[in-house]
Design goal:
2 domains; alpha/beta; Rossmann fold; 13 strands; Glycerate kinase, domain 2; five-stranded parallel beta sheet
Length: about 375
């Protein structure tokens, strides 16, 4: 029997590779002679760099870049084993967790460091770039990123604007002639699981601004600034980014990526399925095991367990999901090819203890699931 093990990370407890290893160890206690294939997964958010590095034998490059508030911060991105793919999480440079709660104000934050990571990857000679854009502290429409990559965003006096959500109000002229030449040579894909437009009540500022520290007054100003930005992009570059699905992701960074880098936005889980060639691994499998830290009603919207189970369903291979916890609405996953799901927490405990013991608990539950599989084989 061939068993494919393809979990996401169990955040704050295990990486995706550690989770896959725990599952494999548990299964081998009961079914030691089966064929096991481990494929660490992610959905484009936190952990994507680590998962692809682990899955491809790649490396993680560490460097200092500009942080959300203009200070230097320690950051990183991943290179696949063949050095052809760079994987960059915007949160590693411009994430909300890099801004103290008391300083959170998306008028003041920038994606400049994210652009510096992309620039470094281009200098490495990669052919493809995968961008994960979740967890941003920004609302600058990607202005900082554009400027870091050589684009000029200028005031009416010909001076560079401040590369922030506030600075967009001063934008008068866009010049992309100096952008990094290798941008035309690489394929850029973006893991994006939201379809918000750039502006309006469902846009970047109104929907995501509050969690970044924006007051109602700040939200209105940010939305006005993004509207101004989109109008200039339309007038000067001939690109309508305002109403495109996903343009509002990461404080309008989605719009900047679409308008200036000709990027392609895709569901994160589906992107990872393609990049890691999961279809080939599952096609002749007998069972798939997936999972992540929490499974709930939102899991059905393209999260890792569903992206994995859809591949299994296509090939008639049953999928079992394991989770740190099962929350309200988790039953919806049964419509997507998952035949059963299990929580790994064996007793009432603190969150700290549950995270600490995640590997042990996942291994134990995997052993119990393997026992059920073995019993089913003998029926």
């Amino acid at each position: 029997m061939k068993i494919v093990i393809a979990p996401d990370s169990f955040k704050e407890s295990m990486t995706a590779l550690e989770a896959a290893t725990a599952i494999e160890e548990g299964f081998k206690k009961i079914l030691p002679n089966e064929e096991y294939v481990k494929i660490p997964m992610a959905d484009g958010g936190e952990g994507t760099v680590q998962s692809i590095s682990d899955a491809t034998g790649g490396t993680i490059k560490e460097l200092f870049v500009t942080g959300p508030l203009g200070e230097k911060v320690s950051s990183f991105y991943g290179l696949s084993g063949d050095k052809k793919l760079a994987v960059i999480e915007m949160a590693a440079s411009s994430g909300l967790d890099k801004v103290e709660t008391s300083q959170r104000n998306p008028l003041n934050t920038t994606t400049y460091g994210f652009g510096e990571l992309i620039q470094d990857a281009l200098e490495e000679g990669v052919e493809d770039i995968l961008l994960g854009i979740g967890g941003s502290a920004t609302n600058d429409g990607g202005a900082g990123m554009i400027m870091a990559l050589g684009g000029q965003l200028l005031t009416k006096d010909g001076e560079p604007i401040e590369p922030t959500g506030r600075g967009l109000a001063d934008l008068d002229t866009i010049d992309v002639s100096g952008m990094h030449p290798r941008l035309k040579e690489v394929s850029i894909k973006v893991a994006c699981d939201v379809d918000n437009p750039l502006t309006g009540l469902n846009g970047a500022s109104h929907i995501y601004g509050p969690q970044k520290g924006a007051t109602p007054e700040i939200i209105e100003q940010l939305d006005i600034n993004l509207t101004h930005f989109a109008r200039l992009v339309q007038d000067q570059l001939g690109k309508d980014i305002d109403s495109l699905p996903g343009a509002g992701a990461a404080g309008g960074l989605g719009g900047g990526l679409l308008g200036f880098l000709d990027a392609e936005l895709q569901r994160g889980g589906d992107l990872m399925v393609d990049i890691l060639n999961l279809d080939a691994a599952i096609r002749d499998a007998d069972l798939v095991i997936t999972g992540e830290g929490g499974i709930n009603h939102q899991t059905q919207f393209g999260k890792t367990p569903i992206a994995v189970s859809r591949v299994g369903k296509e090939h008639g291979v049953p999928t079992i999901a394991l989770a740190g916890c099962l929350n309200e609405g988790y039953e919806s996953i049964y419509d997507e090819g998952i035949i059963s799901t299990f929580s790994i927490i064996p007793e009432f405990t603190s969150l700290e203890e549950a995270l600490k013991n995640g590997y042990r608990n996942l291994k134990a539950v995997s052993m119990n699931v393997a026992a059920i599989v073995k019993a089913a084989q003998n029926l």
